[in-house]
Amino acid sequence: MLLNCYQIELIEAGCDEAGRGCLAGPVVAAAVILPKDFYLEGLTDSKQLSHKQRDELRPIIEEKALAWAVAMVDHEEIDRINILNASFLAMHRALDQLVLRPEYLVIDGNRFKAYQEIKHSCIVKGDGKYLNIAAASILAKTHRDEYMAALDVNYPQYDWKKNKGYPTIAHRNAVINIGPSPYHRKTFNVTSPQLTIEF
Questions:
Q1: What pLDDT digit, counting tens, does each position of 119-161 carry?
Q2: CA–centroid distance for 155 within its chain
Q3: Mind telling me which PANTHER family this protein's record contains (predicted)?
């Protein structure tokens, strides 16, 4: 069972991102502040849930949270500042938008660039340990999936509605055979799925 938060003395926001490993589209981050007594059946790391489950949990999180926000850094910014810095920037932008100021931050992962003067802790696999990070992971994932599905309307050849920009075999083949779209990250290498190592 996931814990409600990392500490109980201060107003705590959980932060997570989605899209770091994608070939196309933005990296999206969410910040969520939950009530102290919050509990939601089925809430866990978004990667452990189906698309349907995430979509069902999202409106409940958005309704019950004391504050939540989602922000993105687009593919061009990612190319300029690199994906790690873009992930930090997306989290900072989400935190900027919170209507309730957090006093403590818990970040999914092992690295973070300090936000203002607010203390933080990095939690490896935190989306499977704390409800506020799990909630942030679901919001980041669902909002990003929605964005990529909208882009897919004009770029169906890359199948973003299905792969969301991640480097599936079909997606990599499409980039190699057709070329990149305006939304692909130029600094991300696309290798052929057929490449094998000869001994």
A1: 999 999 999 999 999 999 999 999 999 999 999 999 999 999 9
A2: 22
A3: RIBONUCLEASE H2 SUBUNIT A, RIBONUCLEASE HII
Phi-psi region of 166 (alpha: psi -120 to 50; beta: other; left: phi over 0): beta
Neighbours of 167 (CB within 10 A): 18
**What is the secondary structure of 53-89 as a DSSP string?**
HHHHHHHHHHHH-SEEEEEEE-HHHHHHH-HHHHHHH
Domain residue ranges in the chain: 12-178
Q: In whole angstroms, what is the distance from residue 87 CA to residue 133 CA?
A: 15
Question: Using CB atoms within 10 A of its CB, is residue 198 exposed (0-12), middle (13-18) or buried (19+)?
Answer: exposed
Of the candidates 77, 69, 58, which has an alpha carbon nearest to the alpha carbon of residue 16? 69
Question: 30 pairs with which residues across the strands?
Answer: 16, 70
Feature table: binding site: 16-17, 108
The answer to whether the beta carbons of residues 105 and 84 sit under 8 Å apart is no
Q: Does domain 12-178 fall into CATH 3.30.420.10?
A: yes
Rounded to 10 deg, the angle between the 131-152 and 51-64 helix axes is 120
Annotated binding site for a divalent metal cation: 16-17, 108
